[in-house]
Amino acid sequence: MERVKGKVAIITGAGTGVGRACMTLFAAEGAKVVGVSRTQANLDETLSAVRAAGGDGRVVAADLSKAGGADKVVAAARDAYGRVDILVHAAGVGYSWMEKSPDSMNDLVNTPPEKWHEVMAINLDSCFYMCRAVIPEMRKQGQGSIVNVASISGIQGLPVAHTYTAAKGAMINLTRSLCVAYCGDNIRANCIAPGFIATPMVESVLNLFDDPAMADRLTPMKRPGTAEEMAYGCLYLASDEASYCNGTVLVIDGGTTARQ
Fold first, then answer.
1. Which of 51, 140, 180, 199 has the highest local Cβ count within 10 Å?
2. DSSP of 3-49
């Protein structure tokens, strides 16, 4: 349908999961896409899929937990395509990060301060840096759309992963604040709040769905969502079809939070 035809979209976290699904979908819908991740090999795989489908894209390896990474990405998009119309910020870490960084997804009392700062930098600071870098570009051209990928864990409590839940909750309210602050510049800011999604980020807990009773407790649909289902939510919010959506938190969780 080419819902973002002619737009230039930066997609973070594009190496895997929701970010990869967004990059391929946005390219298929007519956008010029700039994919960002820390791992070049993963980005190359995503870009190959984009180009194989006839899409137009670039990739940039960058550490978005630091301001310089975000500046590098925006400069690359501007150099390649002259503007930035859309930011989809899907970069972040979840339960799988425990394998690389033990104690990073613990409850608060058992979270070492350095793990708190580490996860906050990856999940929240990156959002701050990316939004701070793209908003001036969007202001120059008189329009823009930001879609942040949060989580239902940002709107409900969990017994563990307290740094993760705090970061996602902060992302949701930051998105709402961006809506209020920059609406006059014709910049919309929205976010999606995924539930359990079959991506590498939560791969270690997806076996819970193998137990029918547990699957029913997790979501009325008794299955995890897909990265592509999340990407369609991001596409809608980024497109002009959602022109009156601003400050929206689009929950995509198969009904998990509906019965909390």
1. 199
2. TTTT-EEEEETTTSHHHHHHHHHHHHTT-EEEEEES-HHHHHHHHHH
How far is the C-alpha of 3 from the C-alpha of 8, rounded, in Å? 12
Q: Which two tokens stand for residue 108?
A: 């608060």
- Please identify which of the residues 164, 182, 236, 244 carries the catalytic annotation: 164
Tell me the per-residue pLDDT of 35-53, one tens digit each, with 9 for 90 and over: 999 999 999 999 999 999 9
End-to-end CA distance of the chain: 36
Return the closest-CA partner of residue 147 out of 238, 28, 17, 15: 238
Instruction: Indicate if 244 belongs to the active site.
Output: no
Place of tokens 């895997």: 16
Token pair for residue 24?
């391929």
Phi then psi for residue 200, to 5 deg, are -55, -25
**CB count in 10 Å sphere of residue 7:** 24
Render pLDDT for 63-116 as a digit per residue (tens, 0 to 9): 999 999 999 999 999 999 999 999 999 999 998 999 999 999 999 999 999 999
Helix (H) or strand (E) holding 189: strand 187-194
Q: Which two tokens stand for residue 71?
A: 């500046």
pTM score: 0.96
